[in-house]
Amino acid sequence: MVKQRRNPFDYAGKPSMRLIFLLGTIFLYAPIIVMIIFSFNNSRRGGNVIWKGFTTKYYEKAFNNDSLVEAFVNSLTIAVVSTVFAVILGAMTAVVLWRFRFPLKPVFSGMVALPIVIPEICMGVSLAVFFSAIGFQMPQGTPYPFNLTNIIIAHITFSFPFAAMVIRTRLSSFNREMEEAAKDLGASEFQVFRDILLPHMRPGLIAGALLAFTLSLDDFVITFFTSGPNTVTFPVKVYSMVRFSVTPEINAASTILILVTLVVTALAMRFQNIGDTEK
Amino acid sequence: MESFRKNIRVFFAFFGPTAGWLMLFFFVPLAIIWVYSFGENVSLTEIKTTWTLENYKRLFESEILVLFWRSLLLSVTSTAICLLIGYPLALVIATASRGAKPWLLLIIILPFWTNLLIRTYALLNILGTRGRLNDLLEWFWNLGDGALDLIGLGALNLLGESFVPIKFLGTPLGVVIGLVYVHLPFTVLPIYSALERLDRNYLEASLDLGASQWRTFRSILLPLTMVGVATAAIITFIPMLGSFLTPDMLGRGQVDMIANVISRQFKSANDWPFGAALSLFLLYITFILLALQAIYEMRKGGQRDG
Question: Rounded to the nearest 5 degrees, what angle is found at the Cα of A226, between the Cα atoms of A223 and A227?
Fold first, then answer.
């Protein structure tokens, strides 16, 4: 395009459009920023009504709230364990769809994508009914983290299709001649997988893992239906606390979780960039 | 790509676990729900599958029809608002300089990575009758009132006697704000990618031939990005229709949507068969919408190629 001519498509340069974007940004961020600010509000009464000075005591309070910390640790454990499984299953799905021709392949591909599109409530309810119908309930006193098995299974189920999608995208850039060359030089099926394919997949695996991790950390609805009274995750705990009242303590805890998510997101984007430049 | 027969052991080593997992923990649970939707409560804990259609008949009770209508209305309104806000946002991102583009995209996507519960809770903080949004509105009200005083119209009380805070929580207005807030990124991204693929020479031609900016937008830009807009509408609408948390927390039980009533059947009303029927109904609607979108996209794609 000729640069010196007035660009007819230059909406981003118009002040009115810039204002709209600014207002949109404020709309998206103001609630979260207000919540973070009021986590430092020195007001005993909940409700966050009036600013009463700066304090960090609600962070202390959140850290000393045993059930809240336990829920937080549960959330992290579930996220880590389900991510490992989700990435393994996701990678296998991606490899199958990328490598093989088989009957009813489009059907399988559609079935894998289904957990992504169906309403969360349907999945939560069906898993809850399924666990109760087959009597799958970890007995009281099951050692940690096996008492979280139900939730972990649920999380693997909804997150592995996302991981598969990300990994499949990465696989599509694989140069098959490398595989053939390795085979010609006498590499076995397993050696090709370990030394050629897996290293190529790595950025996709990492991106998929980080996606699965944040999805697991984020989930409320499905966990709400699959968690028991003694196995509560952070979102479910916050939900039950909000029912009673809105307190600066919840603001503080939420701020911490936002920080965790931000760090994971930043990592995810770094790895994705590395993956892009490696090509 | 190779045929699965050529390497059948490797194929099943990869295919078996994923297909098995999906079958056991996704399709079997859905099948159980499906069977339950034809069941009856025989006692408090026991459900008998009698293949009755009673649960489906109850979907046509006036109470449930009102619920469907409300869910539909809230989702359609919120989707429309999302499109109205999302299109200009996408337009700004698509036309920004190369350096600014990723950052603008990040601004839109980042809230999406934040916990849904926390975002909804953050809104809850703001939307109270004594929340920050009403503070802001009151500030504007005082400003307006002062301005009227200044030009000598103060005595007329054009803005009312005093500021009346708007009730957001427990009203459809609050739920719509929440739905738009949560789903806006879903709307922006497909429109953005449609704008990116657009051949900009068309716009230039239109402007060169003397069409106004508005005319160019209406007759060139919008039609050419319609597939993106339709995709955006569908992928915004589907999760909205199944929303649980937003109507639950911001509607406070006054503005129920389908998912809230489903949840109640399982959590408190203990009417699993009816809850199952409702869930399947929601599922079928989702499938129909996805199919419609697929057909629309195929048709549009066919037109462009032909």
Answer: 75
